[in-house]
Amino acid sequence: MSLEIERKFLVVNDDFKSEAYQKKTIKQGYLNSDKNRTVRVRIADNKAFLTIKGKTNLSGTTRFEWEKEIDKKEAEELLLLCEPSIIDKTRFLVKSDHHTYEIDEFYGDNNGLIVAEIELNSENESFKKPNWLGKEVTGNVKYYNSSISKNPFKNW
Amino acid sequence: MSLEIERKFLVVNDDFKSEAYQKKTIKQGYLNSDKNRTVRVRIADNKAFLTIKGKTNLSGTTRFEWEKEIDKKEAEELLLLCEPSIIDKTRFLVKSDHHTYEIDEFYGDNNGLIVAEIELNSENESFKKPNWLGKEVTGNVKYYNSSISKNPFKNW
Fold first, then answer.
1. Domain residue ranges in chain B
2. Which residues does the Swiss-Prot or TrEMBL record annotate as the active site (chains A, B) (predicted)?
3. A70 to chain B: which residues are within 8 Å by CB?
4. Phi/psi at A18 (nearest 5 deg)?
5. Per residue, what are the HEC states of chain B?
6. In CATH, which of 2.40.320.10, 3.90.650.10, 3.30.420.40, 2.60.120.1060 is domain B2-155?
7. I need a surface site. Which of A16, A83, A118, B69 has the fewest CB within 10 A?
8. Dihedral sign of CA atoms B101, B102, B107, B110 in order
9. Residue B56 pLDDT exceeds 50
10. A55: pLDDT confidence band, cut at 50, 70 and 90?
């Protein structure tokens, strides 16, 4: 149970790949994707999680989050219950000073979309911006994974 | 992970109360209550559960179900994220031959509503009908707890 403070950016080139210290294959779907509450089923490599998030605050940075690890086989069955469509992506982790960027490269209907997220301790905390970091899209609902699942990048 | 086969009936008098071998106070809400998938948070006495159910089949009796016990304090926080409104009820368990009836007496906005459910091994299995058992409402969406949560008995 925690509050997330996150800022989100587009990624303008591939340089982050050589800086990544970890890489995961992620498949995820939504059992609910409305703006007041999301229920997400995620398989990340060999682990699976059920995650419930509340409404995002006005500035788009703070959000209630609850997460439990679940059985991978059960997660595969739960993915079949999810709203269309299922998201496929690779997540790269890149260290930058004392922060970590999570960079998601999307595939399938979202091919061409790459987004970076950084978690902060307060809404005003400063952080380093690597050369591959582009325009900020924090709070832009279109870039929520729950939105991308309903309205994929190829339709934008 | 299981398939539920259930039949549901209205209850016409209080006689079931003296036959009950167990009684639980239940508080539950929905993180999703659409017809293709429901995500339920339930606190039953001192235990709490997160339950995900799939779409009901055409005859209204068979349904995919996944359930995990969760922390009661966390469940109380998750109830705050649920769609309005939260359901308050007492569940009575009554043995009838080799079956068990679950009888829910609702309170608050659903005062006056009492519903009994029986779980069967197959859709055609026979079972005993006690004197307090009334009209069958199996498959009637209005009596789903997920529907009652959105459209309580007092509005019917």
1. 2-155
2. 30 (proton acceptor)
3. 68
4. -75, -15
5. CEEEEEEEEEECCCCHHHHCCEEEEEEEEEEEEECCEEEEEEEECCEEEEEEECCCCCCCCEEEEEEEEECHHHHHHHHCCCEEEEEEEEEEEEEECCEEEEEEEECHHHCCCEEEEEECCCCCCCCCCCCCEEEECCCCHHHCHHHHHHCCHHHC
6. 2.40.320.10
7. B69
8. negative
9. yes
10. confident
Which residues on chain B are in Cβ contact (under 8 Å) with A81?
A: 36-37, 52, 54, 64
Distance from A93 to chain B by nearest Cα, in Å?
29
Q: How far apart are CA B9 and CA B103, in angstroms?
A: 9
User: Global pTM?
Assistant: 0.83
Place of tokens 């999570």: A102
What pLDDT is stored for residue A2 in this prediction? 55
A33, A36, A81, A149: best mutation site toward chain B, by most B Cβ within 10 Å?
A81
Which residues of B are known catalytic residues? 30
Contact predicate A121/A100, CB 8 Å:
no
Which residues in A lie closer than 8 A to residue B54 (C-beta atoms)? 81
